[in-house]
Amino acid sequence: MSKFIFSSPRKYVQGHGVLDQLGEYLPALGGKSFLIADETVWGIVGERVKSSLDKANVEFFYEIFNGEASTNEINRLVALARKQGTHVVVGLGGGKTLDTVKAIADELKQNVAIVPTAASTDAPCSALSVIYTDDGVFDTYRFYDKNPDLVLVDTQICAQAPVRLFASGIADGLATFVEAQAVLRSHGTSMVGGTPTIAGMAIAEACEKTLLTYGYSAYTAVEQKLVTPAVEAVVEANTLLSGLGFENAGLAGAHAIHNGFTAIKGDVHHLTHGEKVAYGTLTQMVLEQRPDEEIAKYVRFYRAIKMPTTLKEMHLEKESYENLVKVGELAGGEGDTLGNLNPNLSAEDVANAILAVDAFSKTVK
Questions:
Q1: 172 is catalytic
Q2: Ordered domains of the chain (ranges, CATH)
Q3: DSSP 328-341
Q4: Is there a catalytic annotation at residue 255?
């Protein structure tokens, strides 16, 4: 018998300037806070965060995030939080910071507040983390009993981040409905362990529609550091709609192939999560035998927001076929989601599709 599960954050807050209200939400979550951000992010938002928490009389301790969502980094920060005696974990920054913070809160059995400083991934709302080795190679997904207690997104701060990160969030979000449809077709399970819900599928579809409708105009606004209604819509799609969509409807080929790219050494690792997911999405579409014009529409859109659609743009143009097969092997490994696309795909099938995307993209005008 099918089991339907829908999971979501306790509260989602988005808007221009809402970072200044962070302190107002923390007493209800536990009060004394363990704040985690990398040095760059803390340099941007630290003073405002401190002012907000001081105004709300919230005690806090800040610690630098070292940059990798690895088990060793999680254990280091857990030990510090225990030493400080904090009651709620607050993460500020990008996807790896936020994934680490969720793991820390899970270890401590405490509430967690997520404050993304770029609309660059759909990680903030989910009850899972992607865990890497200390060297940045994909290790595993880590699942939690609950979603974050608070997700607070200041669109003014997101609009000041590099536009490349904003575009990467759009690319990550565009995978949501593509993968959700595959999971539904294959009778796969969502990331919360159930059959994709009607709500999850509807949200995933709304995510795609929002991004294709407003994504380019929002991108051009963020190039100018502006917040417009289109930017607000796309930030919500990148963060909330994509997060709820992928979690409650599932992942398939695009993210598995993204993870597979970690099998290759070199400049591909200088790309963002969304840039690699964009190429993974096109690869999934080839494996699904989607119509040429549908794939071409995605290629044109990705180009408009400067996302990679060729192997040269992925820094993989000189990669051997054998290494592309290794991408397919890792993508199809136990614990990843390629089987939700097609459980019978071989590593060679994936390698061939990666090469086919490159060939097709070069012909799209």
A1: yes
A2: 12-159 (3.40.50.1970), 162-361 (1.20.1090.10)
A3: HHHHTSTTSSGGGT
A4: yes
